[in-house]
Design brief:
Helix content: 25-40%
Number of domains: 2
Bound molecules: L-homoserine
CATH architecture of the largest domain: 2-Layer Sandwich
Number of strands: 11
Distance between the termini: 7 Å
Structural class: alpha+beta
Shape: globular
């Protein structure tokens, strides 16, 4: 939508959508991620007379998210952003509309935070580039789960597939987007990212590291060569998945079902409990989500499913 025609813009405000993301992409713990078209979160931001950042409304969170400006990831990262650009004179009010499950492993906090940062940057006529805003979104992640990893916020902000080559200094690279569909299933069990990070082993065996970096390099090469088979056979994780899969009901059974139905690859999305599969076509993705959902229903576990291509554009103004 044209910004000039935005009804909120006319009233000194904007409504922004930012996408969910699949972090890690199985073998790239904390260094790989991509955005999807759906689900995602929405933020409405309006200028106010009083300097500072406030939150007047949050919907879709069942009361789980803090309204306090210092504690909420959206407002806290906007505060950091305003301080950085020396605009603490600015006053904005935020409405956050959660359109995706919290604690799902789909970058829920990242989608909200990125929507907020994109909105303030647009309202102030874009003082920063999308890449320059990533560190402020990472502050939000730090608040949400204790570490400022970038593999959700960077793809949510930039769209597409990204590599975080280095955290210190931050070095983020956009990778080619594969022509693949993504099938996502969110089994409704609680797996907080903070806990799912704490349970991972802190040291790894050299022989496992060799397998892992071979796979990361294979996946990145597969993206550049658009070699779907190479992408598929590189998406294996010997470091994190063996531990985290314990938290996900019937993880290996779900993988077997997805692969039998023709998935290119299957794994945990971010820290879980969501799982995802890459497929060559949309129908296969739909078949996989249906079959896995049916299986989870049999286990008395509710679930949400999403089928989407990889999102290219990142956040966007929707009103
Ligand atoms: N890389 C992060 C993790 C992503 O796996 O903990 C969290 O969504």
């Amino acid at each position: 939508m044209d910004i000039i025609n935005s009804p909120f813009r006319g009233l000194g405000g904007l409504k922004v959508f930012a996408p969910a993301t699949v972090a890690n992409v199985v073998c790239g713990f904390d260094v790989l991620g991509f955005a999807v078209n759906a689900p995602g979160d929405e933020v409405v931001m309006r200028f106010t007379d009083k300097p500072g950042v406030s939150i007047s409304k949050i919907t879709g969170d069942n009361g789980r998210l803090p309204m306090s400006a210092d504690k909420n990831t959206v407002s806290a990262s906007v505060q950091h952003y305003l301080k950085h650009i020396n605009r603490t004179d600015v006053g904005v009010d935020i409405e956050l509309h959660k359109k995706m499950p919290i604690g799902s492993g789909l970058g829920s906090s990242s989608a909200s935070t990125v929507a907020g940062l994109f909105a303030i940057n647009e309202l102030l006529d874009r003082p920063l580039t999308a890449m320059e805003m990533v560190p402020f979104a990472m502050k939000g992640e730090e608040l949400a789960c204790g570490t400022g990893h970038a593999d959700n916020v960077a793809p949510a902000m930039l769209g597409g597939f990204v590599l975080i080559r280095s955290y210190e200094p931050l070095d983020i690279i956009k990778l080619p987007t594969p022509n693949l569909y993504c099938a996502i299933v969110f089994p409704d069990v609680d797996v907080p990212t903070r806990d799912a990070r704490q349970m991972i082993r802190k040291s790894v065996l050299l022989k496992d590291a060799v397998v892992q970096w071979g796979n990361v390099a294979g996946l990145v090469t597969g993206l550049f060569m658009n070699d779907i088979d190479l992408i598929g056979r590189s998406m294996h994780d010997v470091l994190v998945e063996p531990t985290r899969s314990i938290l996900i009901p019937d993880f290996y059974k779900m993988r077997e079902m997805a692969m039998e139905l023709g998935a290119v690859s299957f794994g945990i999305s971010g820290s879980g409990p969501s799982v995802f599969a890459f497929t060559r076509d949309e129908q296969t993705a739909v078949n996989i989500t249906n079959k896995i959902q049916q299986h989870l229903t049999g286990l008395h576990i509710a679930s949400e499913t999403y089928v989407s291509a990889v999102n290219q554009e990142g956040p966007k103004i929707i009103g």
